[in-house]
Amino acid sequence: MIDVTLQNFETEVIAASMSTPILIDFWAPWCGPCKSLGPVLEQLEVDYQGRFTLVKINSDEEQQLAQAFGVRSIPTCILMIGGKPVDGFMGALPPAQVRAFLDKHLPAENELAAEADTDEALALLQAGDAQAALAKLGDALAADPANDDARFDYIKLLIAMGGLEEAQATLAPKLAEIPRKLRFEALSNWMIALQYRQDSDYAAWSLEQLDAHINANKRDFPVRYAKSCLLIAQHDWTAAMDELLEIIMRDKKWNDELPRKTVVAILELLTPPKPKTAAQTPGKTAGGIEVLGQAAVQEDPQTAMISSYRRRLAMMLN
Asked: Which among 82, 175, 209, 241 is placed 20 to 30 Å from 224, CA to CA?
């Protein structure tokens, strides 16, 4: 439990809520119901073992904060997640009702365990230990089978490490969903390309052999697609998309639009994941308080490349 004032509100509430839900308890020393609710909230913070942090704001002393949240009676509790208020309640609710309120918004213990395993897997992957990262992602998925982020990362790493059969089995439930999610569709099309490289008549062809056939016949689409699959296997993503766009330019519908689907898949796979926390508006804090200056928003090279290929694809399809 933390006592919060205007001076530490930005740090202890706004910034802290980006990683852990924050329950604000607006109270006052003279308020009888506040004295009843306070111990309930403090005990629940202990019981929930870090799933949320309780902060208390004296509404008499911090009237500016109380007004900012529209507090009209106390006790008033507001739950902050990702820098924003998501829900709240007024009055001294009994413990069971407060638990129900919290459970509606807070991640379950297995979800937290899966998130921790996923974060550890990312650290292991950055350290170069792909096998340990794969094991951690497997643990995350076992803890929370509904965690699409863990499933996506697990399948993606399996494919990168050559485990196509297990990847296909792990992906199958997501491909059975209607509608399919784009990122899982992207994984499927990535595997189609890799399997084509392994199983097609061109599996043993070198890049030079493929280029020789393409130079002799610009419309030899099976060979062009085979070349793109080889480039994909080599993680030469931009060269692969260039080859696929050559097919699209000449025949948008070839092979049930497989080149278009493959370009879309590559762009999706290359797109960085969205940050887990809500982005703030330049020039403002998450609480809406003006700050001096504005950070320049610059597009990084990866994002610029993705935007460029999206535009090229759109132009060819129109």
From this structure: 175
